[in-house]
Amino acid sequence: xxxxxxxxxxxxxxxxxxxxxxxxxxxxxxxxxxxxxxxxxxxxxxxxxxxxxxxxxxxxxxxxxxxxxxxxxxxxxxxxxxxxxxxxxxxxxxxxxxxxxxxxxxxxxxxxxxxxxxxxxxxxxxxxxxxxxxxxxxxxxxxxxxxxxxxxxxxxxxxxxxxxxxxxxxxxxxxxxxxxxxxxxxxxxxxxxxxxxxxxxxxxxxxxxxxxxxxxxxxxxxxxxxxxxxxxxxxxxxxxxxxxxxxxxxxxxxxxxx
Length: 258
Fold this sequence. Notes:
Blueprint: H1 19-46, H2 51-79, H3 96-128, H4 140-144, H5 151-181, H6 192-202, H7 211-228, H8 231-257
């Protein structure tokens, strides 16, 4: 982790986004991912390829290029070259033990909410509220119907899930949402993390039924990032929580294809 003393930026010197601009920047990449998914998922479904693979493909060709590309573009405008200097904020160093003490409870809390509580109410909410969505839209059907897919598709989903959903996607999302967008609504003070979490949750247009659990699950992490002005806390929590989920899915997949 960077430990220099000149990387933090005074709150008063940070460019502030209007609420409208912030909403647009929070939600636009999610809209693009949704459009991509709606176009590609039916094609994959007709060819008996898991819809989960569409999401992973969207991370590679939509999420990362748009969010990282936008940050680099802002850096080029500011610095005259492709750079994240002055663009990614909240990089105030903390001690190693603080990463552990702060991150571990956030990871456990997120996994409990999203891995246990949410899974127990998702199907009910989908049946009662989102019943009108086509079956291929609900990616949880991937786990429920593993036996219908080829071993190659399942293995690809397991490997790419670890790389893209476990590491690359979360890192870029934290840079974009917590390193760029969150500091630029810092004028909202203690409300800024809540606004950021709510918009970040809505940005996941592919799983709207998870919004209540996702918001509650991510609040401790985002408030910790805001409190310590340190995006690495968010990166650690986001990556490890996703990696644990990806590894669990991969073990399930491997048990099937054996």
